[in-house]
From TrEMBL:
Organism: Caldovatus aquaticus
Residue sites binding L-methionine per the record: 444-446, 497, 612
UniProt xrefs under InterPro entries: Cbl-indep_Met_Synth_N, Cobalamin-indep_Met_synthase, Met_Synth_C/arc, UROD/MetE-like_sf
Reactions mediated catalytically: 5-methyltetrahydropteroyltri-L-glutamate + L-homocysteine = tetrahydropteroyltri-L-glutamate + L-methionine
Gene3D superfamilies: 3.20.20.210
Binding of L-homocysteine, residues: 444-446, 497, 612
Binding residue positions for Zn(2+): 654, 656, 678, 739
Protein's name according to its UniProt entry: 5-methyltetrahydropteroyltriglutamate--homocysteine methyltransferase
Origin organism lineage: Bacteria, Pseudomonadati, Pseudomonadota, Alphaproteobacteria, Acetobacterales
Amino acid sequence: MTIAANLGYPRIGPKRELKTALEAFWAGKLGEAELQSTAAALRAGARAVQQGSGISHVPSADFALYDHVLETVCAFGLVPPGYGWSGEGPVSLATMFALARGRAAERAAGIPGDAVALEMTKWFDTNYHYVVPRLSAAMRPRLLDDRWTRALREGLQHGTRTRPVLLGPISLLLLSKTEDGTRPLDLLPAMLPAYADALRFLAEAGAVWVQVDEPCLVTDLPSGAEDAYRTAFRALAEAAPGLNLLLTTYFEGLRDNLQLAASLPVAGLHVDLVRAPGQLPAVLEALPRDRWLSLGVVDGRNVWRTDLRAALAQLRAAEAAGFGKRLMVAPSCSLLHVPHSLAMETALDPALKRRLAFANEKLKEVAVLARAVDEGEKAVAAALEESDRALAEARADERLHDPGLAARLAAVTPEMERRTSSYPSRAAAQAARLGLPELPVTSIGSWPQTAEVRSLRARLARGELDKTGYDAEMERMIAEAVRWQEEIGVDVLVHGEFERNDMVKYFGEQLAGYAFTKHGWVQSYGSRCVAPPIIWADVSRPKPMTVRWSAYAQSLTDKPMKGMLTGPVTMLQWSFVRTDIPRETVCRQIALAIRDEVADLEAAGIPIVQIDEPAFREGLPLRKADRDDYLRWAVACFRLSASPVRDETQIHTHMCYSEFNDIIESIAAMDADVISIETARSNMELLDAFAVFDYPNEIGPGVWDIHSPRVPSAEEMARLAARAAERIPRRRLWLNPDCGCKTRGWAEVKPAMANLVAAARQLRARAV
């Protein structure tokens, strides 16, 4: 019988219950028992939904209070010193959250010292952030918190034998960083006994299947990784011989790692046929017929409904190749990356809604496909016909395409994708216009989105406040923010973005081609949730989007004011994107819209325009062989958006939580006058790329980690800035936070920004 399986379910709750509970817990308004009770209720609800949808293999231990990578290292006791853990016994919630958020967040728990939060970075090419483990040879991995057996037993108590999800040892190590010169894979011998214990206890508790996630198998493996995989899975198979291990890969095809994956001693293999449909014939040829084959034919990362007939054809091919009695149907990856359910989306265009499938709808698609394999198409005829109608309706929708926009795209010339002059000429013109001091201080853009700001937005939406009254309140807040920045000595000001709900949604709401959900939340990290817009048609800008607020802010001060925009690549990456045309085409459409806004900001007298591209590296293909084409069009799209201005207008961009070493030349090719990047959590490690490569323009390394609630001292920020000055000439160095401050409170932002200004003054004085 074909098995309908799921790889993972959204954690945050249909109404963001986990977010609410976490933030109440961190604020001291909710106890640990209540937090865990909320988490248990969310897990119970997830199991019920999956079983009710016809899923036979329901995952467990896919839930995490903050991040599954973080909880894995805590379960194995892989905690660096300084976070309040003695080295014995289970790691406390206080320590786990200190690792994620910094020591100041857990002051009440008595954690000594002032440890900074661990680094965060993107989970492969998604917008989910994981906490990067920091390992050393001195650590003694052992199973201190058997979260996998506990999750299995929780399901059994409620009548469900779940399939526990375990992040595999090789991917865990390859996703980690070491601090003593040890190569991550050198730690494998010490790690394997802890993994063996986890599997042995699962077998004793009644587990039948365990899902071992090894997403690194779809990447270019480093030297020694193949032998490490063979060693690791031989040990895992020997630890619990009666346990069925499902080796799970996703986000790409296995390619040159296919023979390795097919040779490992596991009961089954999962492959992603959404991101890499062409790998199916090779997989069918390579995988032994005594293995189970799990095919990810339902898209776990996008919101479009599945072409059921096309997916069924893939499953039939596997059946014909001899896997008919050992076949699993599944999403391509965990459903962590899509919203919970369409059920609450009552305001969407009905025609568009018929084309969509969120997590709960995707589960039903999986179940329908499994049934179709076993019982034939007649058994699911209604579902197949509904799928056909939705696809046909989408193809026939004339609203998808704008002939005028197509003509404009066709008329883009190479000259439109570059500035008039080279950087040295622009820098001289900008210096004359702006008159900035050495080491100018600025911020990334947003100031706190307080309860007052959110209340005003809600009142406007409910009709309790008219637009005139709302705009007056926004002007008041902007004026207060401008005055405060002038008082503390910030050199380049921002208006604060109080009027913006989200850096993508705010723009998407003013662009043609975008649609928005009311409850389409997905987790970005911890309690941070985003509701990605849906790009369903051609994208264009009907009218200016930000000029009114930036011009008002500039009118209040003689200091330069930055206009703040989100770049085309990030607008693409942080949306659910249509699949009927190439992503490059969609990105170029967005670039033209942003280009028009840049030109209008310059015409309104704004001297600096920041085009944020935090998702630039996120879009990078996982395989090096595929990257040149992406970098070509991504750089071109940024330059198309940034190049309509005169030399004296300064273009900034911002990137965060990404490794730049392997794409530094492409970042330079973007030709922004100033780039600001995250460097605080990595202790300026990310600047190593700029030391090796002579980056020609100006750089603002973040010296304050805004994702942690701690307030760094002026001395700490000056130390980080001085370290940056060892790699970057001071004349090309800016000082700024890592990211925007919308998620922080004024109680943290005001002293931190004052300390940042003080740090700049300290460093300027040292140069005298």
